[in-house]
Design goal:
The chain is mostly helical. It has one helix and no strands. It has a domain of 30 residues. It comes from Paenibacillus vortex V453.
């Protein structure tokens, strides 16, 4: 549930039966897609950062 954006509160669409379920499913799919896109962006930025760190010879992690 998204608290800051009332239109995305799917509980209020339950009374509309068929169309309400469609709206709830669409909201869920859109939010899932947004979360996946954000995660992919984070993973890409992390991979680029690791590549740059390796080029510079940086080390990370615990002591060996």
């Amino acid at each position: 549930m998204v608290i800051d954006i009332p239109i995305l509160d799917t509980r209020k669409y339950q009374e509309f039966e068929g169309i309400g379920q469609l709206i709830m499913d669409l909201v869920l799919q859109i939010l899932s897609w947004l979360a996946e896109e954000e995660r992919n962006g984070i993973k890409q930025a992390q991979a680029e950062g690791i590549t740059e760190a390796k080029k510079k010879g940086s080390t990370w992690g615990g002591h060996k």
